[in-house]
Amino acid sequence: MKKNAQAIAATQSQTQAKAAANADLMGIAGAVLLGLTLLFAAGFAQAGILHDTAHDMRHAMSFPCH
Questions:
Q1: What is the DSSP letter of 45?
Q2: How far apart are alpha carbons 31 and 24 in whole angstroms?
């Protein structure tokens, strides 16, 4: 009976470790995807559009810019 309980505990521990590793990988993959998307969008956007967007964000955050 003890061996069975130990085997179950070991399996649960391995499952938790794999879940934690998968969560870490999903976070890294999401950050890379977001970064590449922003880089791609900024690389092909016109300078005026980027300026206007940044200006509008400053207003949206109530940050004085004038």
A1: S
A2: 11
| Average of per-residue pLDDT values in the chain | 83
Q: At 6, is the secondary structure helix, strand, or coil? A: helix
Cβ-proximal residues to 42 (8 Å cutoff; 6+ apart), any chain = 50
CA distance 35 to 23: 18
What's the whole-model pTM score?
0.52
CA nearest neighbour of 54 among 22, 12, 30, 45: 45
pLDDT tens-digit profile of 26-40? 999 999 999 999 888
Q: Which residues contact 59 (CB under 8 A, 6 or more apart)?
A: 65
pLDDT at 43: 85
Q: How far apart are CA 11 and CA 33, in angstroms?
A: 33
